[in-house]
Amino acid sequence: MIPHLLRRAARVSAASAFVLASAGLSTSVRAAPAPEPAAPTRAAPAAAATGKDVRGIPLTGTGPALRQLSARSTGPFSMVGLTWADARARLDGTAEVRTRDRVTGVWSAWRALESDVRTPEVGAAGGSALRAGTQPLWTGPSDGVQVRVTARPGAQLPGGLRLDLVRVAKVPPGPRRPADEAAPAPATESSVTAAPRPAVTPRAGWGADESLVVDPPRYSAETKAVFVHHTAGTNDYACAESPDLIRAIFLYHVQGLGWNDIGYPFLVDKCGTVFEGRAGGTDQPVVGAQTYGFNTDTTGVAVLGDHNDAVSSPVLLDAIAGVAAWKLGLYGHDASGTAELTAAADNGLYGKGQKAVLNRISGHRDAYPTECPGRNLYADLSTIRGLAAVAQAG
Fold it and tell me: For residues 134 and 103, what is the distance between their CA atoms, to the nearest angstrom?
């Protein structure tokens, strides 16, 4: 957020109207939108400056099992995420948020934030600034927010809980990031597993701010496997908004979590458009931050939206398969085969140094304890493998 808005946020009057967050849990995200509640007035906690595009608001609470943020007006934002101070800690509980539409003034239903994000074991530039956090939630243009976070029975919430509001300004496409001189030469495609290179929208196409990427990309020796993800959150976005959504994820990863770059090497929207994610070259074995414990020798394709609910279209499945077939084919790997990978960290499913034999095209949940990529997209993986194998067969 720009400095004059930060100063204005810090001077918010104690007469501003807020409402105390209720403490109950909700498992549904489809309830009818509720009107803005009446409430006693309450002063807002001071905002933490996390970056020019991300504003952090600390959560308050009276015990170790409940943190909340009363309903309040804010500056404009389009994405939210919950972060906390200990980058290795997990949120053992439930985090929910609701937001106010900037155009209509209507409050959304309570929506859950998925808490399966972990700090990457390599490649982050943030050092002590690294934070853990939830998956971000795309809200669209908003100007009000309310949060409640509740620990599971017997558990405690991590310290330093903060709600990050991501503002996404419209930006014109910029110059593409130049190829890094440290990048290895592109692999030679095997005649057995060659697949056509898919059309990929470069980083400039979604407005990546390359000045925020401090460290150069890191590279593996090859790409042995492809992990399929979903970004969770919402499916209520227009494909014309996909660049804004991706830019918001980038800002959340960099300015909210303290990562060096967006975590996903590739992203795909529901219309089947493929976007370049982490910098370093789409034809290179770039180390991402997308499958904790298995970021080396792999790549990731993240689908925008929540695929516990959304049903994959044929064009989306073709797009995922096309990326996977091409990337694996660069190193002569059969998309329908398996790979042996070694865990680089204890991640809750595999211990550090443990061997894992996984499909060349796997879901995030195959290597990490998460629901990602959602039950519907996970069920589509066999179809994606078949499509990728056909692509490699020419």
Answer: 26
State how far the Cα of 375 lies from the Cα of 161, in Å rounded to an integer: 29
Q: What angle do CA 284, 286, 288 make, to 5 degrees?
A: 155
At 269 the three-state DSSP class reads coil
**Structural element, H or E, at residue 241:** none
State the Cα–Cα distance between residues 90 and 158, nearest whole angstrom: 7
Each residue's pLDDT tens digit, 120-156? 755 455 455 789 999 999 999 999 999 999 999 999 9
> In this predicted model, what pLDDT tens digit does every residue of 333-352 receive, in sequence order?
999 999 999 999 999 999 99
Taken in order 340, 316, 80, 26, the sign of the CA dihedral is negative
- How many domains does one find in the chain? 2
Helix (H) or strand (E) holding 69: strand 66-84
Do 299 and 245 sit in the same domain of this protein? yes
Treating both helix axes as pointing N-terminal to C-terminal, what angle do 314-329 and 381-392 enclose, rounded to 10 degrees?
50
Claim to verify: residue 291 and residue 158 sit in the same structural domain: no
Instruction: State the residue range of the domain holding 103.
Output: 3-166
Is residue 307 in a domain? Answer: yes
Does the residue 303 lie in any domain? yes
Please check whether residue 95 lies inside any domain of the structure.
yes
Q: In whole angstroms, how far apart are CA 101 and each of 139, 170, 295? A: 8, 18, 37
pLDDT tens-place string over residues 220-242 = 999 999 999 999 888 989 999 99
Say if residue 148 is in the same domain as residue 246. no
Q: 153 and 209 share a domain?
A: no
Q: How far is CA 116 from CA 13, 88, 265, 370, in A?
A: 36, 12, 18, 6
Residues 10 and 147 in one domain: yes
Tell me the torsion sign for CA atoms 100, 170, 5, 250. positive
Instruction: Decide: helix, strand or coil at residue 393.
Output: coil
- How high is the pLDDT of residue 43? 37
In a domain, 336, yes or no: yes
